[in-house]
C-alpha cells in the first residue's frame, strides 16, 4: 500500500554474501566487473556466457544472476528469462531456482501474461520445500502476488479472499499483516459486503501502531460511512464537472467532487500519501488564483483507471497535474492526484506502465 510506484519485486542484486567462490570463478567475475566499470558491457556478457558451464550451483547462480541483470539492461529480455530457466533445469531443488522462478513469474506479470504468472506463482507457493531455508520469503511473497493478481487484475474477489486468509493462517508472523487485512477489506468492499469491510478496518485501527495504517483505516471507515454525493453515474459527467470547477477556479466545487475519506496524493516517482482533500484546499486556492490558460484533457484510460491531465499548471516545480478517476463502490469517483512535469517524464516516457493505483 505505501509503495505505489512500482510492482513488488524481490530485489536481490547480489548473492555473494551467501556464497563461496572458487579462485578461478572469482577471477573471471572480477574481470567481468572491470569490463563493466570501463563500459565494456558486451565483452563482460561474452565472458560470463563462457562461465555457464560451471558445475557448482552457488557459483553458477552468481553468474546467472549477473547475466540476467545485464541482459535486462541491454533490452534482451528473452535471453534474461532463458538463462534463469537454464539454471532451474540444471538445479531444480536449489533455493536459487525458486528465486529465479519467482523472477520469471514477475516478468510474465509485467508483460500482462497474468494466467502464466499465476501458474508460476502457484507452483512456487505449493512446491517450495518445507525444510528449505527461505531468507527472502519467496513462498510467502508468491502467495501474496498470487492474491494480488486475483484481486486487482482479474477481479476474482472471493478467490482472493481465500488466499489472503490462507496467508494470515500459515504466516502468522507476517510483517505485512495489516496490509493483507486491508486488502481483504477492499475485497469485501468490491463484493458489496460493507459491514464486513468496516469490521476489518475497525480491527486494523485497533491493532495498528503504524500511523499510516491507522490513518488509512480511519479514512476508509469515513469513506464507507459517508453519503457518496461526490460520485457520478458516468465518467463523462464527472469529467465535465471537474473541468468546469478548475476552469472557474471554484475550490469549493472541487472539494465537493473529491472522494471523501481516503484521497491519494503524490509526486511522480514518489510514494503516495493518503489524506483528505480538505488539507489541499490552501494549495488549490493559491494556484487557481494565478492559473492562466490551463489545458484540461479528456480522461484517458491508463493501467486500470482514468487520468485527466492538466497542463500549464502554475506550480514552478510541478506544472502538470494528473487527476485519478476510477469506477469505485459508489460509481465514478475522483480519488487522487499526481504532481508531475515534462522533464521528469522525459526520463521514463512509459512511466504509467509501472504504476498501480489500486488503493
Automatic annotation (TrEMBL):
Transmembrane segments: none
Protein's name in the database: Tetratricopeptide repeat protein
Amino acid at each position: 500500500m505505501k509503495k505505489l510506484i512500482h510492482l513488488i519485486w524481490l530485489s536481490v542484486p547480489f548473492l555473494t554474501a551467501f556464497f563461496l567462490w572458487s579462485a578461478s570463478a572469482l577471477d573471471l567475475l572480477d574481470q567481468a566487473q572491470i569490463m563493466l566499470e570501463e563500459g565494456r558491457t558486451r565483452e563482460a556478457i561474452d565472458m560470463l556466457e563462457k562461465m555457464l558451464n560451471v558445475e557448482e550451483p552457488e557459483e553458477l547462480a552468481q553468474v546467472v544472476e549477473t547475466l540476467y541483470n545485464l541482459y535486462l539492461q541491454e533490452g534482451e529480455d528473452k535471453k534474461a528469462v532463458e538463462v534463469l530457466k537454464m539454471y532451474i533445469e540444471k538445479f531444480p531443488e536449489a533455493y536459487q531456482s525458486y528465486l529465479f522462478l519467482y523472477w520469471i513469474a514477475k516478468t510474465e506479470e509485467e508483460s500482462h501474461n497474468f494466467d502464466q504468472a499465476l501458474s508460476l506463482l502457484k507452483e512456487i507457493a505449493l512446491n517450495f520445500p518445507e525444510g528449505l531455508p527461505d531468507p527472502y520469503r519467496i513462498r510467502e511473497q508468491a502467495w501474496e502476488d498470487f492474491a494480488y493478481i486475483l484481486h486487482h487484475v482479474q477481479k476474482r474477489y472471493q478467490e482472493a479472499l481465500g488466499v489472503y486468509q490462507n496467508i494470515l493462517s500459515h504466516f502468522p508472523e507476517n510483517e505485512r499483516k495489516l496490509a493483507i487485512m486491508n486488502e481483504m477489506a477492499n475485497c469485501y468492499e468490491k463484493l458489496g459486503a460493507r459491514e464486513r469491510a468496516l469490521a476489518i478496518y475497525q480491527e486494523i485501527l485497533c491493532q495498528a501502531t503504524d500511523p499510516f495504517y491507522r490513518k488509512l483505516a480511519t479514512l476508509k471507515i469515513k469513506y464507507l460511512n459517508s453519503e457518496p454525493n461526490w460520485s457520478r453515474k458516468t465518467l463523462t459527467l464527472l469529467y465535465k464537472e471537474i473541468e468546469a470547477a478548475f476552469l472557474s477556479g471554484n475550490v469549493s466545487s472541487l472539494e465537493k467532487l473529491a472522494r471523501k475519506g481516503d484521497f491519494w496524493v503524490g509526486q511522480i516517482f514518489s510514494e503516495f500519501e493518503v489524506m483528505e482533500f480538505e488539507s489541499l484546499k490552501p494549495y488549490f486556492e493559491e494556484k487557481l488564483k494565478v492559473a492562466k490558460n490551463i489545458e484540461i484533457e479528456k480522461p484517458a484510460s491508463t493501467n486500470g483507471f482514468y487520468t485527466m491531465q492538466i497542463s500549464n499548471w502554475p506550480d514552478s516545480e510541478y506544472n502538470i497535474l494528473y487527476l485519478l478517476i476510477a469506477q469505485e463502490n459508489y460509481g465514478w469517483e475522483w480519488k487522487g492526484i499526481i504532481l508531475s512535469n515534462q522533464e521528469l517524464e522525459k526520463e521514463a516516457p512509459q512511466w504509467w506502465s509501472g504504476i498501480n493505483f489500486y488503493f
